[in-house]
């Protein structure tokens, strides 16, 4: 037991041909140079050799003479190697060993933090989304065998350079963010996100990629300041005070609804995924097409009001679990500043909230008069799994979302925190 994973991964079993989706539909499947060669070796001499030559093609995005490849898609957006039962024909004929890393490991992502291996799931898989969002204890981290990562050798690395303060303190910073999200008490998800924004702003002046604030004689002082800030944000009274100041803010909702609609609408054309496009069409229609942001906001606010008494706690759980899983799966050190990371997560959460409250099941629940019955909760759960999974798969990975987030965030610092408030409006 040398690795850790959230408890939900110990419960995960691939649903194979009974899955409502497939791992690869609508996605680009990258194949690294070594994986490409391994695949060619595995199919050599078999009828699949010609198919691999035809369907695994150089990745033009990597420039002339590319050594990496991508797998071709059919007109329906499915991988060219998927068979009629939606199962991988290469896996069936040649075993898991033949598969590229991304296919063999999905929906797991493994990261080595120093010597420690962490394995986390992707909500782009519907079964992971179900297990992660719905069980209260799903995110407890438990010891597991490295085999849970499937190919632990392909894990990415964070840290390991003792001189790099940015990655050296990353685990402590992340632990505080997760504490803010998971601290017991009646603190709204929006207030928790605002607290993370404030934490990021407090660290922004001296803790960022490439910082020199921890060098030489300044190191002890910078580390003491960092620890003080982290300690204060982990304290329940800090969160309570932030909740109070956040609740007093009054902001217009139209801009929030407009941003969410434009993010999702922008993904409709590029994504060849029937389930995603059907969901987006239904959600936009529920907001009157999404062209009139103030009206969309009015509809959203009305639904939120109606759902709140019986099912708000359940909705809050989905968002907390999504955010914690995000912190575990995506190291914040991938971005240059913590505030950029928190802003992007807030944008993702906003889009998810807008989508969930436009889902036909949620609209029907609100129109029918919501009660917190087991049946109502089960219907809400199913809608949430569909929304979180499809948005994770088709929106959260899009480079356009990162570009948009950079534009919306402004010039950084307190301006970015102010703009983040607009995104927190609907939460
Ligand atoms: S999306 Fe998840 S459950 Fe569905 S086939 Fe892929 S790994 Fe299995």
Number of helices: 19
Q: How would you describe the shape?
A: globular
Which stretches of 5+ consecutive residues score pLDDT under 50?
none
Radius of gyration: 22 Å
Q: Helix-strand pattern, N to C?
A: EHEHHEEHHEEHEEHHHHHHHHHHHHH
Mean pLDDT: 91
What is the strand tally? 8
Residues in helices, as a percent range? 55-70%
Protein model, in words:
With 427 residues, the protein is an alpha/beta fold. It has two domains: 3-158, no CATH class; 163-427, no CATH class. It is built from 19 helices and eight strands. Strand 5 (108-113) and strand 6 (116-121) form a beta hairpin. The longest helix is centred in the C-terminal third of the chain and has 37 residues, at 293-329. The chain starts with a strand and ends with a helix. The structure holds iron/sulfur cluster. Iron/sulfur cluster binds at residues 14-16, 19, 21-23, 106-107, 125-127. Iron/sulfur cluster (SF4) is lined by residues 14-16, 19, 21-23, 106-107, 125-127.
């Amino acid at each position: 037991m040398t690795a850790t994973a959230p408890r939900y991964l110990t419960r995960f079993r691939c649903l194979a041909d009974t899955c409502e989706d497939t791992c690869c539909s609508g996605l680009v499947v990258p194949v690294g140079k070594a994986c490409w060669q391994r695949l060619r070796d595995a199919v050599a001499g078999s009828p699949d050799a010609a198919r691999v030559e035809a369907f695994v093609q150089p990745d033009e995005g990597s420039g002339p003479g590319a050594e990496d490849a991508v797998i071709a898609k059919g007109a329906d957006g499915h991988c060219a190697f998927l068979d009629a039962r939606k199962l991988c024909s290469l896996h069936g004929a040649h075993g898991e060993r033949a598969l590229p890393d991304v296919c063999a490991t999905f929906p797991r992502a493994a990261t080595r933090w120093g010597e420690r291996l962490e394995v986390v799931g992707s909500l782009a898989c519907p079964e992971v989304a179900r297990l992660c969002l719905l069980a209260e204890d799903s995110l407890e981290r438990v010891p597991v065998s490295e085999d849970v990562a499937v190919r632990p050798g392909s894990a990415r690395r964070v840290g390991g350079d003792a001189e790099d303060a940015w990655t050296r303190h990353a685990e402590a910073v992340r632990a505080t963010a997760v504490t803010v999200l998971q601290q017991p008490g009646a603190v709204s998800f929006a207030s928790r996100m605002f607290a993370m924004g404030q934490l990021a702003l407090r660290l922004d002046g001296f803790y960022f990629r490439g910082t020199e604030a921890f060098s030489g004689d300044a190191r002890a002082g910078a580390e003491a300041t960092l620890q003080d800030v982290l300690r204060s944000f982990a304290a329940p009274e800090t969160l309570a005070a932030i909740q109070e100041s956040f609740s007093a803010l009054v902001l217009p909702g139209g801009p929030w609804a407009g941003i969410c609609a434009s993010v999702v609408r922008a993904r409709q054309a590029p994504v060849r995924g029937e389930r995603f496009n059907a969901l987006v069409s239904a959600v936009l229609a529920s907001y009157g097409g999404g062209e009139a942001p103030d009206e969309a906001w009015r509809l959203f606010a009305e639904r939120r009001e109606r759902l709140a008494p019986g099912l708000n706690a359940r909705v809050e759980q989905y968002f907390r679990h999504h955010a914690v899983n995000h912190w575990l799966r995506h190291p914040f050190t991938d971005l240059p500043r913590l505030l950029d990371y928190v802003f992007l997560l807030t944008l993702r959460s906003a889009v998810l909230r807008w989508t969930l409250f436009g889902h036909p099941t949620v609209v029907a629940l609100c129109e029918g008069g919501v009660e917190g019955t087991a049946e109502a909760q089960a219907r809400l759960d199913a809608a949430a799994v569909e929304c979180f999974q499809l948005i994770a798969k088709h929106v959260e990975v899009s480079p356009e979302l990162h570009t948009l987030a950079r534009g919306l965030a402004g010039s950084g610092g307190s301006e970015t925190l102010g703009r983040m408030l607009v995104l927190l409006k609907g939460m």
